[in-house]
Input
Amino acid sequence: MIIRLILHLALLLLFAPMLNGIIIKTKALFGGRIGAPLLQSYYDLARLWRKGFVFSRTTTWVFLAGPVVGLTVPLLASLLIPFGALPAPISFEGDLILFVYLFALSRFFTVASALDTGSSFEGMGAAREVTFSCLAEPTLLFVLLVLARLSDGLSLDTLLGSHLLTAWHSDAGASLGLILVCLFLVLLVENSRIPFDDPNTHLELTMIHEVMVLDHSGPALGMILYGAALKMMVMGALLVRLAFPWQTGWWLSDALMFLAGLAGLAVLIGVVESIMARLRLPRVPQVLVGTMLLSIFALVLVLR
Amino acid sequence: MMELINPLLLAVILINFYTLGSARLVACIRVVAIQGALLALLPLLSHGMTFHAMLLAAEAFCFKGVVIPWLLLRAIRRVRIRREMEPIVGFVPTLILGVLTTVGAFLFADLLPLAPEHHDGMFVPTALATMFSGFLLLITRRKAITQILGYLMLENGIFIFAVLLSAAMPVMVEAGILLDLLVGVFVMGIVVNQISREFSTINTERLTALKE
Output
């Protein structure tokens, strides 16, 4: 039990920033550049951690609570979800609801800390973030409902169990394909990637997620970046397990396969970011509503 | 062969959704053409390589996948429009209605007194859903081109039904339907040109007012 917990957290904490490195490398290759080294995200985190805190006198404790909650929530959520074939350390009936709303909690604190600065740009970004995430949330829940229908339990561990392999070959394969697409789009929205948001943009008016963290610096910004990397890995774990439901039975090969799946996901995100332009802001809700309708349709397909 | 049918019908439904939610006319015409081409595979997959099935597939591919979309693309080029600008019902509401009717079709198909071998498949619900989507497209859009696309989609839905019954349905009936459709598209193409020449737009609502 303890060993599994340590293995789970070690995998998460060590490999999460690597995903961002792979995405940046893929985009650089598409652009014909060599790009930053794969470990650049780790260097950035170390650099930020060595700096001192700077707080505006107008802010309160809420300003620091945002980054702290943003870092701890993905850690907690990761304990509920299996990493590939490695089972989740903590599992109980109904933990999928907790999984979804843990992220809502972290979003609430990020938004609160953005509003705490009193900057109008940050308020605008907070409004956009909340709007988009409340459109993405039903999709995630419908996806989990489809998975719950296909399995006999309500915990993420049974939802993503070994029955997925047979489900892919049965009639439910079509629904699984649909929810895989939905889940990928939700992953892009939640982690503020291109078509929905550009993590590298430098104009406050067009930012969504990045504008909320403009006033954070030093270790607080480091916590936000690390938390974002952890969040991407945790949500990616859901997608990777759904797409590659094989298991070998030996923990090391299972872990390696999981990491390879995550690396493939990161390459896929990099490819999407390289070949797609950002959507106009009014188009984003349309796409998200479309995704939600697709997930509802997938649910109807498995219900009949 | 049979296990390819469900993914194919699923693709048909996804194309319905895309057409309902998209404003770009060229893209809409292309995906409806793809839908027609996919449907041409359907008789081959469900009845095997019989002469009748191959005839159905060939005529469906020629008319639905090639000729009619080509006519529509040519008409669009001539009147120079790219987008459906102001639909009567917005794109997202139409999409929601489309999904609701599709879900309704799936529920309704379970209640129909069908032959037992058709009861579990996706044929009947997909046919109903495609027909409803065609109706929705006809009702909610103003441009004549999109309305023709709605007709085309409606015919695609009927075609799925026809494949189910193609053992009993003579080729002549299917050929007659296609011929009707082709003539319809021709007439609509001429009408589109006339409307655009008269009013410098192709919105059909201008046709409701009479004048001397």
User: Anything to note?
Assistant: Chain A has a mean pLDDT of 90. The two ends of chain A are 39 Å apart (CA to CA). The first helix of chain A runs from residue 2 to 30. The interface with chain B takes residues 171, 174, 178, 285-286, 289-290, 293-294, 296-297, 300-301, 304 of chain A (CB under 8 Å).
